[in-house]
Known about the structure:
InterPro entries: AcOrn/SuccOrn_fam, Aminotrans_3, Aminotrans_3_PPA_site, Class-III_PLP-dep_AT, PyrdxlP-dep_Trfase, PyrdxlP-dep_Trfase_major, PyrdxlP-dep_Trfase_small. Belongs to the class-III pyridoxal-phosphate-dependent aminotransferase family. ArgD subfamily. By secondary structure, the chain is an alpha/beta fold. The chain has helices at about 5-15, 50-55, 60-70, 85-95, 110-125, 145-150, 150-155, 175-180, 205-215, 285-300, 305-320, 345-355, 380-395; strands at about 30-35, 35-40, 45, 105-110, 130-135, 165-170, 185-190, 190-195, 200, 220-225, 245-250, 260-265, 325-335, 335-340, 360, 360-365, 365-370. The chain folds into two domains: about 5-60 and about 305-395, Aspartate Aminotransferase, domain 1; about 75-300, Type I PLP-dependent aspartate aminotransferase-like (Major domain) (Aspartate Aminotransferase, domain 2).
Amino acid sequence: MTTLKSNEDGRQHWQSAVMDNYGTPGLTLVRGEGARVWDAAGDEYVDLVGGIAVNALGHAHPDVVRAVTEQIATLGHTSNLYVNPVAVELAEALLDVAGLSGQGKVLFVNSGAEANEAALKISRLTGRSRIVAAEGAFHGRTMGALTLTGQPGKRDPFAPLLPGVTHVPFGDIEALRNAVDSETAAVFLESVLGEAGVIPAPDGYLQAAREITKATGALLVLDEVQTGIGRLGTWFGFQQTGIVPDVITLAKGVGGGLPLGAVIGVGAAGDLLKPGQHGTTFGGNPVCCAAGLAVLRAIARDNLLDHVSALGKDIAAGVEALGHPLVTGVRGSGLLLGIGLREPVSGAVAKAAQEAGYLVNPVAPDTVRLAPPLVLDEQQARGFLAALPGALDSTTTKDTD
């Protein structure tokens, strides 16, 4: 294994050998434990990014380590040509926590983008082809998922994309009602626009989407890639709305750091996909599914849903209580929070926070996103709140991201 001697050494190796996607990272992380990570220089940070909301149980959680170690030593990969018991057990567990046992079916994939690609294909099996999604939404960067993504900056370099997708303003019920008709195959929505700056759906919006899609026969696909598996303080975001979508996509937290995604088809939507219409070599890999089971069991055993809900409220209240002139407010819930800034200086805030020992995500020029491991503890949260004023004070009006 390449030994990277410093952050700069890591940056140089990355730049010479790895393609640009997010650009060359400035920090080389070499070790993690819980919500803490260490860089190549030995400096310690509290990780409030969580691998972009992936590391539900933090780093090197003993349950995940034990589960994947035992599974790789037992049965490492089978493909979908054979039943593997771990995938079946995880599918049943996901349906259970979703409250959909006996009402749905699960397709395992490898990522959130692949989950949305599969959901897109499932929607075509209704015999309709038109799709409605939201402006500002993020559903992934593969071609189909990118077509659903409502961010022109990410889409335009790859045009032309799939035809038949209409984007409407997020939260605008009448715009959604006007865009959906009897030719619409599906409406793709998120309960929180995570990548657009942590923007929750307005009250009543998802309920209206459910009513509109039921009336027109379109599928309601809820992208829970970022909000699922406890991130908002409930297993899924839809459970806070009183509705049940036709299709739910998830990934990120479900694998506890391993590549795992899933599509849950509810009711008739779970039977649309027929043999031979979709394939995924690694989807449902036993090792990843073992990690997923460890994640679900630890969240339930350690009462992490209540912890996430309470700690998220404490952090949001703590940020608001600072009364800092740069902060416009805190959006989101659970441990998916966006700190709104009066100026486009999120990059500078993130840099200053890093220097103080806290990793945060400048998801938009005027928003800092927090998506820490669900095991973040109160002391770590208090430490961040104590360090935040200094990070905010250090900024200028020019975003350095």
